[in-house]
Amino acid sequence: MKAEELSNTVMLHENNRMNQSLNDFTQRLYNNNYKASYPSKTLSLVKPDDLPDPLPSLSKDILYPALYNQESSMCTIEIQMDRPEDTQDGTWFSLSHEFQLRFECQFIERLIDGFLLLCKEKPSVFVVVPHRSQRSSIKQLLENEKYQNLNIKADTVDRMQGQEADIVIVSYLFFDALQVATESEFLFDRRRLNVSISRAEKFCLFIGSESVFDPPVEVLGSPSCSDAYQHLMYFVECCKTQKSFFNLKVNANRATDNNSQNSE
């Protein structure tokens, strides 16, 4: 790079979008001089006494403790899909692409409904996914009448750069370890991960499968993938420190049954 080009390089020193908790995470890339202009940005939440009783299970067990925790604006949900009963002996099994899309879509629907229930002022929500097939499935969900006139969008990482929302849901639900290994250079890209997380103004929720949080060893053999993985693990560790990391175990047989019933 020429000297005159270096003189035109701009180093970011101020963040006009994220609150303090999210800004602290991005400092890992932009150094400690990267300051939040609006550090106290938070979601407006319904008073606990005004919430319905009982709350839906996902809202009660995950969203409520995560959102009403004043120390955190980040949350991670790891979903472990248990093997079906007929493959407990080690028989190979795989979940179909269609099943994964349906499961992801239904899970995100429960998350969005939970956010709308707990937030006093309806927040803007952006669902970020790596693949176009995921985007299409979730966009179809958002055509539901209950989401009309609300600022809720879904798109791929590459198409949402420059956009922002109160709440960002980043979904990396890939239950097939072979798929994760095959697409590792695409999925474990630090720029994509950082763009996804940094679109959130007030709260970022990352949901991923066990295959993403504990990927095949060959994935970490690539320096670029390893770098992206470490960036993701830093996000996870921040959530664990702030008590906003949650692990869900889902039985594949029951999930399949639920999907069948919901599609009828």
TrEMBL record:
Coiled coil: none annotated. InterPro entries: Coronavir_polyprotein_1ab, DNA2/NAM7-like_C, P-loop_NTPase, SF1_C_Upf1. Residues 7-210 form the DNA2/NAM7 helicase-like C-terminal domain. Keywords: ATP-binding, Helicase, Hydrolase, Nucleotide-binding. Pfam families: AAA_12. One of its GO terms (molecular function) is 5'-3' DNA helicase activity. It comes from the Eukaryota. This is DNA2/NAM7 helicase-like C-terminal domain-containing protein. It comes from Vannella robusta.
